[in-house]
Write a structure and sequence with these properties.
By secondary structure, the protein is mainly alpha-helical. It has seven helices and no strands.
């Protein structure tokens, strides 16, 4: 295994970056961190890779799922639960949904 690492054919950093990139289409930073931690990736590496661009990812996921802004408080709560289940922080969710809030 050390031989593979020396020849740059096995890299935790490359694995973590690719895994985070593939999960970023559907999930937020918390969910990505949880997955990488379960896979045994170093904590410092996880923090460096997982949290970039969370607000933009949340916005893209929300617009893919819901094409129109939330019309009611119930619909807004439904979207909040959806984003929370995807691993986005409350701060990200609140800033995203309050910017599109019609009230």
């Amino acid at each position: 295994m050390l031989d593979l690492e020396e020849r740059k054919q096995l890299s935790d950093e490359r694995y973590a970056a690719e895994r985070a990139h593939s999960m970023a289409r559907k999930y937020g930073a918390a969910r990505i961190r949880q997955d990488l931690k379960a896979k045994g990736v170093d904590g410092q590496l996880i923090e460096r890779i997982s949290s970039a661009g969370d607000l933009e990812r949340a916005r893209a996921i929300l617009t893919r799922k819901y094409h129109v802004p939330a019309a009611s408080r119930e619909e807004r709560a439904k979207r909040m639960r959806f984003l929370q289940s995807r691993g986005f922080s409350f701060d990200i969710i609140r800033s995203l949904l309050s910017s599109s809030d019609p009230d």
